[in-house]
Amino acid sequence: MKRTALVAFLLLTLFSFYGLGQVLFLHGWRGDGTNWNECVHVITAAPYNIDPDQIFSPSLPNSVSLVEWTANVAKYIDSLPEDVRLTVIAHSFGGTSILFLFIVAHHVEKGDLAQWAIDLGDQDAELGSIITALVSFPDPDLFVRAARRVNRVFLYHPALGGGCLACSACGDVQVPLICDDAVRDMCVLTTTKDMLFSADEIEALEVPVVDIYGTHTWCPGVCLPISESDGSVSLSGQRLFLTKENYHEIDGGAVCHIDFIINMRHAAEDLIKIAFSTKERQAAAR
């Protein structure tokens, strides 16, 4: 009951201030737009009945670094019609990138992106490649333009703390076909999550962000030997353990990292129930 009440409260808060707009699904590492087919099927049917033309589910390059991944998301959003205002649902490293986009956009608007990046580098040299990519990015205003097109965000099993075996895959002996730029940055995130996504950065968020984290353990996947994971990401790595005006975390239930792709354990249905509200549900929440 407590979880249901919290979800109802968050939905009421989100939908009180923003219209639905369009829906953007962002996949994670080694994923593509088809990962969301079950979720699209759910939201285009009753009781949601969202117009398929209002749903975007792109397949973006996913072996790239955090900054490049974030830039690709920003470029895609920037390419959409000017009147588009998005509800974003982002999985795994896609969730990491959309949250990072808002943080970068905030510092671009403040005019202190370079100094912020340098300060991060001073805290941890492992952030060097991310810092270099940020300060040399040719069009930082891109992140601001993209951020302004988003009304709300749902992070689904986000890889905020990287992948649980990322550092092993990209260690002294790199695992072929696994270690790529995305996995290298996931390794960096295992020790720098709280720097990139600090309480001050989350406090500055200007749109509602809900982190829907998993709780199911011993899931099949590369992390199976690690009990405290959903199969791909550690359970603690999916969370910031923060509550701010525009940031909340919700227990997404006992489902594994990729259950939603085939709606196993009703994962796709449950995700949509959390992220979307019919008028009747909003009335019930009131």
Model description:
With 286 residues, the chain is α/β, with parallel strands linked by helices. The chain has helices at residues 2-17, 37-44, 66-79, 92-110, 113-123, 128-135, 141-147, 166-169, 181-196, 199-203, 267-275, 279-285; strands at 22-26, 55-56, 86-91, 150-156, 209-213, 247-251. It has a six-stranded parallel sheet. It has twelve helices and six strands. β1 (22-26), α2 and β2 (55-56) form a beta-alpha-beta unit. It has a single domain (27-157, 178-214, 232-266), classed as Rossmann fold, CATH 3.40.50. The model is unreliable at 279-286 (pLDDT under 50). α5 runs antiparallel to α6 (128-135). The chain is globular and about 50 Å long. The relative contact order is 0.16.
Please sum up the structure shown:
With 286 residues, this protein is α/β, with parallel strands linked by helices. It is 43% helix and 10% strand.
Overview features:
43% helix, six-stranded parallel β-sheet, 286 residues, 6 strands
